[in-house]
Design brief:
With about 200 residues, the protein is mainly alpha-helical. The protein contains 8 helices and 2 strands. A two-stranded antiparallel ribbon has the order 1-2.
Length: about 200
């Protein structure tokens, strides 16, 4: 029998990814709602890393929503009037790529976070997939940050996360969620191509 909470999270998550691909900011509040639902599902399935990750998703979704609504920092041009010089000009957050140094930092941060999360899950919970769960947790936080900053690499990270999570959900017999993450993997590739076209 399908868990109704899992089913609701499934539907909200699909709507969220659609909004992300289309750069619609309403995807962020949908992310908050789906995280609340999936936090319950994962906790009951002893996926404590995934459950704790939902709390981080709620916090980073609130941050990401602000980023997309606020846009880039105010900028000034030589043609600004005296009033505009005081107020500045708000610009929409645009799709961009990570620099070489930013990629290096992202890689190192994930490399450090993975064993830290895995150790915590192994030491303080009864998780039987601590290393796997820890990797997905670390990569998901990176993907959420990159999405919030509209970095195109977020889609590559989510593609990897979604493929790994399909196996993790299957291991826990969360078959509907395994299907959802399989769909997410396909949508990650679609999102990558859509953002590439938009960024050209």
């Amino acid at each position: 029998m399908i868990n109704p909470v899992e089913l609701a999270g499934f539907a909200l998550s699909l709507a969220m990814v659609y909004c992300n691909i289309q750069q619609i900011h309403w995807g962020w509040p949908l992310a908050i709602l789906s995280a609340l639902l999936y936090g319950t599902v994962f906790w009951n399935s002893q996926l404590y890393g995934e459950a704790s990750l939902q709390i981080m998703f709620i916090l980073t979704a609130a941050w990401g929503w602000q980023q997309w609504l606020r846009g880039n920092s105010p900028t000034l041009t030589s043609s600004d009037t005296a009033d505009n010089a005081v107020l500045g000009t708000q610009t929409q957050l645009s799709i961009s790529s990570l620099s070489t140094s930013e990629r290096r930092v992202a890689f190192m941060a994930t490399l450090l976070a993975w064993p830290a999360f895995s150790y915590f899950l192994h030491r303080y919970t009864d998780s039987d997939v601590a290393v796997w769960d820890g990797l997905v947790t670390a990569l998901s936080l990176l993907g959420q940050y990159l999405l919030g900053r509209k970095k195109i690499e977020n889609w590559w990270i989510w593609l990897l996360v979604n493929v790994l999570t399909v196996g993790l959900m299957a291991e826990k017999s969360l078959w509907l969620t395994a299907v959802l993450y399989g769909i997410f993997a396909v949508l990650s590739y679609i999102g990558l191509q859509a953002w590439r076209r938009h960024g050209q």
